[in-house]
Amino acid sequence: ATHSECCFYDPSMRTMVAVQGEREQTLLEALWRDEFTLHYQPIVCAADEAVSGFEALLRWQNPTRGLIPPSEFIPLAEETGLIVALGEWALRAACREAVSWPDDLRVAVNVSAVQFQQPGLEQAVLGALLTSGLAPHRLELEITESVLMRDSEAVIACLHRLKALGVRIALDDFGTGFSSLSYLRRFPFDKIKIDRTFIRDITDPDTASIVRAIVGIGSRRGAIITAEGVETQDQSEKVQQEGCTEMQGFLYSKPVTASDALSFIRTHRSRHAA
Ligand code: C2E
Ligand code: MG
Ligand code: MG
Ligand code: MG
Q: Which residues are in the EAL domain (predicted)?
C-alpha cells in the first residue's frame, strides 16, 4: 500500500499498534525484572591467537521462553526508543564485568543508531566508565554504517567527542551498508570489523580481493582489522593471509556467559604462557 492509502481507522492497524504496545510493555518489564544479560565472545589476535578482548552481546533470559537472541527484541527496542535505556544498561554491565578481567583485555559494546540520535550518549559512556572504574581505552564502542548515514556532520562530531573521552570506536559489520569506503576517509576508526558474509565467501577470489582492499585502506589509516564470523581453519588462514589483524568467530568460541568468559581467560592465559 502506498502512503496515501494508509488509513488511521484501519482496524488491523489498531491491532498492530496494540500488539506492539503489549510487546513494548513486556520489554520494559523485562528491564525492571533484570532479565537481560550479556554474553561475551572472545576476539583473538591473528598473529598468535591470543585473546585481546570480548564483545558483549545482549541476551534476554525469559522465564518461560528461555534465552532470546537480540534479533528478536532489538528491532522493537529501537522502534520504541527503549534501546536507549537497554543500551545504557548494557554499557554499565559490560564495564562493570570487564573491570575484573586482566587489564590488557578490552570490552566491545554495540551502540544502536537510535542511541546516537539522543543527546545523552556521551554522558552514559562517561557514567559507565566512572562508576565501574574501567580505564577508557579498554572500552570499545561498535557502531554500524547506518549511524553514519543519518546526519553525518553531527554524528562525526559526536564520535570525536567520544574519542576524546579515551574510548575506541569500531565500525561493525563493515561492507554491508552503502558508500562504505567514503566513511573510512571521513572518520578515523580505531577498528574495522569486516562483516561475516565476506569471511564466509573468502575462498572466492573476488571476495578475497574486497577483503584485501578493506585491509589496505584500513591499515593505512592505522585501524585494526577484525574478521567476523571465522568458523573454519581454512577461513582463519585465509583472513590472516589477507592481512586481518584480529579474528572473531565460532572457531574460537561462541558467545559465553560472564563467568565462562572468566574461565576462558584463565585456561587461555595458561595455555599461552606455557
Ligand atoms: P554483531 O554486533 O555483528 O555481533 C556478532 C554476531 O555474530 C553475534 O550474534 C554473534 O553471536 C554472531 N557470531 C559470532 N561469530 C559467529 C560465527 O562464527 N558464525 C556465525 N554465524 N555467527 C557468529 P548475536 O549475539 O545474535 O547478535 C546479533 C546482533 O545483535 C549483533 O551483531 C548486534 O548488531 C546486535 N546486538 C547484540 N547486542 C547488542 C547490544 O547490546 N546493543 C545493540 N544496539 N545491539 C546489539
Ligand atoms: Mg558488534
Ligand atoms: Mg558485527
Ligand atoms: Mg551484525
A: 20-269
248 and 42 Cβ atoms separated by less than 8 Å: yes
Start-to-end CA span in the chain (Å): 64
> Which residues 6+ apart lie within 8 Å of 23 measured at CB?
76
Query: CA-based angle 214:169:241, to the nearest 5?
Result: 30
Rg (CA), the chain: 20
| Cα–Cα nearest to 40, from 274, 257, 269, 265 | 257
pTM (2 d.p.): 0.93
Cβ < 5 A residues, ion ligand 4: 173
- Ligand lying nearest the CA atom of residue 195: 3
Grid coordinates in use for 78?
529501537
Is 0.85 exceeded by the ipTM? yes
Q: What pLDDT score does 25 carry?
A: 84
Contacts of 266 (CB under 8 A, 6+ apart): none
